Amino acid sequence: MNLPTLSNWRTWEPNPIVVKELRQAVRSWAITGMLLVFLTILFFVTVGFLLGESFTINPNQALGRDIFQVFLPVLSVVGFFFIPIYVAGRLTAERQEGNVDMLYITTLSPARIIRGKLLCGIYLTVLFFSVCAPFMVFTNLLRGIDLPTVFVLLTIAFLLSVLSLQAAIFLSCLPASKGLKILVGAPSGMFMMSLVGMMVAMSSEMMREGVGSRLGTWDFWGPTLSALLLGLLLFGFFHLAAIALVSPPSANRALPLRAYLTGTWLLTLGVAVAWSVSGGSLEPMNSWSSVVTGGLIVALLIAVSEGDDVSLRIRRTIPINPMKRALAFFFYSGSAGGLAWACMLSVATVLLGALATQTDWLNLLGSAAAGRGRAAWVTTGDEFFFAWVPGVLFLYTLAYALFGLFIHRRFQPHRSPIFAGLCSVALPALWAIVPNLVLFFVNRLSWDALQERQLGNIFNVFALKDRAFIADHQLCAVFLAALGLVINLSWFRQQLHAFQPVPRAEPAAPVTPPPL
User: Distance (Å, rounded) from C-alpha 391 to C-alpha 354?
Assistant: First the structure.
């Protein structure tokens, strides 16, 4: 497909999904009714505040701020909750097996389908924001809030609305039944509603401190740009994950997602190092290590659910060069490659986190960048705990994932590969519940027992009373992970050997006609 440029502008055409969705939205009473209700609320809130002000003797010098603090939650509910549910609900209905819609019969690419849904939601968000913007700006005339604060808060609310919309699209693309999607969507909806409270708290803080006086300082732009970068990275992940979920199983769905996550890993590492060096604190590096390890734990559970079969479509794209093929093994679809990719990034994450807490390389880097002598380094007092706990959690999850993979291959090979992921989740739950049930029936279950060392229990790592026991958990996790690798070693060799490109057919030799 040719990309739109100024030279081929005559061939430009709108996304068919956008046209379809907007036509449905125009005919839907849900959008029209919500827009009318939204306008009515804004109008009556404004009239109510102005009428109330007319009955007071002393004028309210913060009337605009009071009205704005009512407008922003109303707008946030629409942007964070209503529009994402509307777009995600339509996509969920189209993905039902009994609904033969454009999603199943179209020749459009999965990326174009997801972009169409996203653009439709963004258009609806812009529609509601354009309706609310005049009311928001009007509050500046009533005193109590400045225009920079209004525009900054509107921009934050819009960006969070787009992020909530993409997250809702991702959840609607999950390969699950309608009931399971509702079960997953309920806490997600509660989280989106909690964003409304976050916006209210953020607006109160910004209006109290004032934004206009800080727009030219790095104290404002540093955290703002970092938060914007993290939001963009999270948006890109949800977007690529949604595309992968609607792609056919024969496609190489993992390649763009793993390549993106690897780049994200490098970029966020640079941001964490920069903040640690500039602030003289290990907290950014510890936070980065914890968040990245949590993401890689989820990646492990997804990898074991991918399956072993490499389609002919994927094999045709495997490089012939051995070096390129070895690199492609980590990024192409398949359980073995996904496990290897997650382990590679996890080892690098744990080592960098341990080096940050056990050595002075960040301190030396900060001193060299500032051009001065070594300064005092601010530590948390839990260097060993924060250095090795992410590695313990990952090793435990790796062990459970390998055990689940072994159970699926050996005892239930006819089931879907998702069964391996379910086993990987069920095993740590059983390991944590069964011993405590035994203690309960023998009347020895107490908070002290829960805080004691329970080797093999991944949840016990967070409940330890004596953090010195983390070393015992570390040895247990290494042993279990090694055992899982041993019992799956032959399978891994088979997958590595099967990762070969399709042999190219030799050109047929020309047939020489017989002599006359």
Answer: 10
Q: What is the DSSP string of 456-484?
A: T-GGGGTS-SSGGGHHHHHHHHHHHHHHH
Residue 401 in tokens: 């994932």
Domain ranges, ordered by start, for the chain: 12-247, 254-501
Helix axes 283-303, 254-279, angle to 10 degrees: 170
How far out from the chain centre does Cα 116 lie?
Answer: 20
3-state helix, strand, coil in the chain (%, to 5): 75, 0, 25
321-335, 354-368, 417-431: the lowest-pLDDT one: 354-368
Is the pLDDT at 187 greater than 50? The verdict is yes
The tokens for 319 are 């490089």
How many helices (DSSP H) and strands (DSSP E) are in the chain? Answer: 20, 0
Best CA proximity match to 171, nearest among 237, 92, 90: 92
Report helix, strand or coil for 378. Answer: strand
Give me the pLDDT at residue 147, please: 81
Lowest-confidence pick of 119-128, 411-420, 464-473 = 464-473
Q: Is the pLDDT of residue 160 over 50?
A: yes
Q: How far apart are CA 324 and CA 329, in angstroms?
A: 9
Q: How many CB atoms lie within 10 A of CB 410?
A: 10
Question: With contact defined as beta carbons under 8 Å apart, do 314 and 331 qualify?
Answer: no
User: What confidence tier does 256 reach under pLDDT thresholds 50, 70, 90?
Assistant: very high
Contacts of 300 (CB under 8 A, 6+ apart): 338, 339, 342, 394, 397, 398, 401, 424
Mean pLDDT, residues 296-304: 90
Residue 238 to residue 240: CA distance in whole angstroms: 6
pLDDT(372) > 70: no
* Exposure b/e, 289-303, CB count within 10 A at least 16 = b: bbebbebbbebbbbb
